[in-house]
Amino acid sequence: MRFYLTTHKRHWLRLTDVPLFLKSEHFDRAVKWDVAQGPYAIDSGGFMELKDKGDWERTPRQYVDSLRRIWEHVGPYDWAAPQDWMCEDAIINGGWFGGQHFVGTHLSVREHQRRTVNNFLELRSLAPELRIAPVIQGDTVPAYEECLEMYDKAGVNLQAEPIVGLGSVCRLQSTKKGAEIVTAMASHGLRLHGFGFKILGLERVGHLLASADSAAWSSHARRRPPLPGHTHKNCANCIDYALKWRERVMNSLPPTPAAGLEGGMAA
Which residues are in the DeoxyPurine in DNA protein A domain (predicted)? Predict the structure, then answer.
């Protein structure tokens, strides 16, 4: 499995060759660009965008322009997420969850799926060269199946895609429902990427994923003393801690039949 460390520290691209996952917005104010020493992928920042605003303020053309600048200055990335629409209850209905306020889109799951597919089609039309990955969304197995049908009707062969993002499972990953969704989508022969997968989720369904990303190392570090010899309060922004955490995660996982990305996804 290609396991990406999620980070907001874009300068890490020059410090390590392990796969990194970064939001496009972290490059928006870049003056000095760091050339990537290893593989990386780009997140659109959709969760926070919809959580805080209930809509996308950045237009597809603006997003494509940002992706092109990153590609030009940092180097080719494995893939970039589209401006998809998560189908989690908090995103749709809004309210307070886990101490955070969600504005809510107040749209249906099907409308989120329709907008997700349409955005992917528009981004691919604007920039077919930029390795923008489709993402499937839903809240139940039948809903995800309906999303697959939407892509099929739009002429998108998901089985032929190098990677297909599996959205809205981050908070379900270690549950029976989450496992059922991952298993059902993997049965279609898709090379799935799991957004925000933690250790428990990876232990349960990691063998069905081609790749995954996680920022859990940061919250893990925030609750613990810094590494020996480190003078900061904690290691929540520390590359040494992040790399050690990733190594422990990789060593804890069984071999996966979906493996193969480490050697050449970007080829």
Answer: 2-252
What are the pLDDT digits (tens) for 208-232? 999 999 999 999 899 999 999 999 9
Q: How far is the C-alpha of 52 from the C-alpha of 94, rounded, in Å?
A: 10
- Which segments of 106-210 are extended strands (E)? 135-136, 164-166, 192-194
Mean pLDDT on 2-14? 96
Residues 6+ apart with CB under 8 A from 180: 141
Q: From residue 55, how far is each of 59, 93, 143, 262 by CA, in Å?
A: 11, 13, 21, 35
Predicted local confidence at residue 256, as pLDDT:
53
Question: What is 203-216 written as a DSSP string?
Answer: HHHGGG-SEEEE-H
CATH fold, domain 2-262, is TIM Barrel (3.20.20)
Query: What is the token pair recorded at 134?
Result: 């489709």
Handedness of CA 105, 107, 112, 118 (dihedral sign): negative
Domains in the chain: boundaries? 2-262
DSSP state of 43: E
DSSP line for 185-249: HHTTT--EEETT--HHHHHHHGGG-SEEEE-HHHHHHHTSPPPTT--SS-STT-HHHHHHHHHHH
Evaluate if residue 259 carries a pLDDT over 70.
Answer: no
Instruction: Give the span between the Cα atoms of 85 and 167, in whole angstroms.
Output: 9
Q: Which of 111, 23, 28 is nearest to 62 (CA)?
A: 28
